[in-house]
Amino acid sequence: NAGVMQNPRHLVRRRGQEARLRCSPMKGHSHVYWYRQLPEEGLKFMVYLQKENIIDESGMPKERFSAEFPKEGPSILRIQQVVRGDSAAYFCASSPFRQGDTGELFFGEGSRLTVL
Amino acid sequence: GEDVEQSLFLSVREGDSSVINCTYTDSSSTYLYWYKQEPGAGLQLLTYIFSNMDMKQDQRLTVLLNKKDKHLSLRIADTQTGDSAIYFCAEKGDYKLSFGAGTTVTVRA
Fold it and tell me: Does the structure show a pLDDT above 90 at A85?
């Protein structure tokens, strides 16, 4: 049973380019969360999605950032016109239910974005 | 509110016990968690505790919860070099987890 799969693991972009990060949740999980980890900081919640719906995007910057979780295919976190401050590790997590047994989130290995 | 705080660094000698502390603010949290992150990897759940418990033991791990003070701790007995990692405390709100900044544990021989 594959875990949460994220790709790419590492991504390098120049300022002004676009970054697309993909996440395939664990089999049977319909809830996806994106978190951002800045150097020497904890994980900051960005967005929570269910299939075809954004439930909570309160942690996502209003501009340049968007997320989707289509009916078919992985969840995508898209960052347009990247700036150096976007350099971070972006983690995707999934869970089977909104409230879950214990609320445990299953994390992917992360996508590390470097903006030159 | 969602504000989880933990100390940033802990150095411990191999074989000793490690204690990592965490404070949280959301008194309505139902579950509290400890996650472990090894270098370059994602987070793995170590253990969790339900808010109506005050202690949970799982092999070398002991979690203590003081709801009155909103204080959570993780004790690792007989710390090994493989325990070197970043440990994150997290609390569960309605549907999302709020994390602390992580405690980097370094195990020295």
Answer: yes
